[in-house]
Amino acid sequence: MKHLIILLAFCFSLLAGCRSAESPIEAPTLTVVTHDSFSVSEGVISKFEQENNVKVIFLKSGDAGVALNKAILTKGNPLGDVFFGVDNTFLSRALEEGIFSPYVSSNLNSVPEAFQLDSTHQVTPVDFGDVCINYDIAWFETRGLNVPWSLENLTYPEYKDLLVVENPAISSPGLAFLLATVAHFGEDGYLDFWRRLKDNGVVLANDWNSAYYTNFSASSGRGSQPMVVSYASSPAAEVIFADPPRKDAPTASITGKDTCFRQIEFAGILKGSQNETLAGKFIDFMLSRSFQEDIPLQMFMYPVYPGAALPAEFTAFAKTAEEPAMMDPETIAKNREKWIRDWTETILK
Fold first, then answer.
1. How far apart are CA 108 and CA 313, in angstroms?
2. Among 89, 229, 244, 311, which is least packed, fewest CB within 10 Å?
């Protein structure tokens, strides 16, 4: 009997060992709350997961404004550990709400100071892009019409009915373009510009998808407007996703002084995270060369790390504005709602 008990105990220990081998201890999870446009290559994330023995979960939460609202509403009991996607148009609001824990990345020294808008280090700059007016190259060439290289030119009669813009009250690029006009014409002059633009037949769309894929002549081939508010990286995307493939871009961007607004996107550790150490490592990882070089073809934004290599399509067809419109985040936060309200009363009524 004694030998039988020993034998049974030995068998049970073997079974337990087998179960343990079949069911290893699960890695901890790190939840990254993002906007819907976030994307990263699986191989890039896998490298971070393997190096840190962690499983990264991405929680997409709507467009940038909606995602930020959710983060604010869940302050103190966050939906995740890291938030990515707050940009300089909503930065001050995010900082005032106190939803982030300060963190200084070990890789921050590699980022130009022009992108470091938060001196409290609650958020870290990750990427940037210029919201510009894109135009249909063939449309202008076949008609022998010069491209309007300034905001003022858009109000000239030869460009009547040729521009579609997004509603700044509900569209991120629409808001960025509105801010560009405020920066260029000033608070005393931007509404007068919009009145002249309205008289010149500017077309309004609710969002970027509608403006770009329905109204814009170069994308659908059926739209009536050969100019649209989009991104300076859009021409590169036109080549990358062309079907059938093509070697040239059908569109280009107007990048004259103040015609573009520079958006900078940030990431931060959500206050209340139970994984602050891992969250900090993920912030560092977002400033690593592998992540930064993955940004252009995943999110069609530019890396903030100057040493990151750009894909050939970006080098050939995309460009950044040499003199983009910029505005202090505090100024935006203080006036954003008023500017949108005044624009709505001027344009939509």
1. 27
2. 244
The pTM for the full model equals: 0.84
Q: State the Cα–Cα distance between residues 73 and 25, nearest whole angstrom.
A: 33
Q: Which of 60-64, 127-131, 316-320 tops mean pLDDT?
A: 127-131
Which residue ranges make up each domain of the chain?
29-128+263-317, 130-261+322-347
Residue 8 has pLDDT above 80, yes or no: no
pLDDT digits (tens, 9 = 90+) for 269-313: 999 999 999 999 999 999 999 999 999 999 999 999 999 999 999
Which H or E run includes 19? helix 2-22
**Cα-Cα-Cα-Cα dihedral sign, residues 74, 92, 106, 44:** positive
Going from the C-alpha of 202 to that of each of 1, 61, 167, the distances in angstroms are 94, 31, 12
Tokens 């560092």 appear where?
A: 284
CA nearest neighbour of 298 among 117, 64, 127, 73: 127
- pLDDT of 6 reads 45
DSSP letter for 314, please.
H
- Report, at the CATH architecture level, how domain 130-261+322-347 is classified: 3-Layer(aba) Sandwich (3.40)
- How many C-beta atoms surround the C-beta of residue 178 within 10 A? 26
Contact 307, 162 (CB under 8 A): no
- Cα atoms in the Cβ-side hemisphere of radius 13 Å centred on 206: 1
The three-class DSSP label of residue 173 is helix
Q: What tokens were used for 168?
A: 């700044």
Q: Tokens representing 146?
A: 């010069």
Class level of CATH domain 29-128+263-317: alpha beta
